[in-house]
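Researcher: Go.
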Amino acid sequence: MDDIVKQAIAKWPNVPDCYGWLGLDARGNWYMRDDPAQAAGPFAGTGATALSKGSRLLHEKLIDFIQRNYESDRQGRWFFQNGPQRVYVELEATPYVWRVQPDFSVLAHTGQAARVQRCMLDERGYLYLDTDLGFGLVHTLDMGFAADAVEQGLWVPQPADAANLPAQFGYVPSPQLLPK
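Model: Structure:
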């Protein structure tokens, strides 16, 4: 967490949390969800639309700031610590989106390196990695490298039920739906 964020938390400890305004899609892109986007429906799942997803963030420094200050609470809700305020994140898929490198090393959408501990394959053919950093979905553009890692025996996919992954790996896809 950035020092300036820690200082803001100390200065203003009782700022209310924010829900529904920030989303992370299955490709590791961040979305700002203003009032009209939130009114159009959920970020992901049944009822989600292009309008309800919001506006994709493109400003590199803002994205870097979000990613440096991205973490989870004890309930498995992921958030961006924006100064003294927690901005909880709506997840389209998982808390992390993995980018697999040609040497089979793995980077999170946040740029952090991770070590693969196990590999999961769900009924839809989506590939997930459980790492020392956390749980996430393999980016669709990196499935070729992931397939090579599986073929070489570096990763052995275990069957997974997509609906059970949040409970199994301790993350909340939509913190907005939990009691506050």
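Model: The mean pLDDT is 94.
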